[in-house]
Amino acid sequence: MSEKGPIIALDFPNLEEVKVFLKHFPEEEKLYVKVGMELYYAVGPEIVRYLKSLGHSIFLDLKLHDIPHTVKATMEVLAKMGIDMTTVHAAGGIEMLKEARQGLGQGTRLIAVTQLTSTSEEEMRQNQNIQTSLLESVRHYTKGAVNAQLDGVVCSAHEVTAIKEVTPEGFICVTPGIRPQGAEVGDQKRVMTPKEAKMIGSDYIVVGRPITQAQNPFEAYQAIKQEWNA
Ligand code: C5P
Fold first, then answer.
1. Ligand 1 centroid vs 72 CA: distance in angstroms?
2. What is the 3-state secondary structure (H, E, C) of 139-194?
3. Whole domain around residue 41: which residue ranges?
4. What is the CATH number of the domain that holds 90?
């Protein structure tokens, strides 16, 4: 399993742009990268093979949500790809989470998306008709993930403390919405610096644009890593 720390979100539309981006890094620098839906649907399993051939660790963020049988079968496929971590939506229900775990087996980390960080409490009430607080809903879904023996959740860094209160030792929190001091926030609403995220107990931080859009991505990555390791 890869060391805790920054995961670079490879939010690119094709393999060529991934290759151009990775040229900024020395070959011996082994990264932990996130492949999301855009890149995976554009390139297919080839993207995983390519990144693995370079020696990088892979978080395949496909956020599965379907009937338990289908999710289990899909996880069996993903298990063979040699990825390090993948995601399902906790809203799919405990049965789906359990089947996902079964399909994936124990060699790959399985983490749940609770409430997307783009969902506000008001939207949750309106669209999902969940009448508790957003944080309560996140905690509820997290307990489901624990129950189904998942390894962790993706969450806002602002939710980590509340999540760690209801989860066993070793349950991981993977947090996007990270911005180094002074960086452009973009469309992220509530952000935290790498240092703050580590201090509140985040296990992995997912960082996209502050690295992918930097003049010098390797420098930007190193600065974030140093802040995390300080
Ligand atoms: O560029 P930026 O650092 O904002 O990228 C964050 C990455 O994390 C993106 O790939 C985004 O899709 C992902 N993400 C997120 N919020 C979530 C889940 C995933 O920003 N709740």
1. 25
2. HHHHHHHHHCCCCEEECCHHHHHHHHHCCCCCCEEEECCECCCCCCCCCCCCCECH
3. 7-229
4. 3.20.20.70
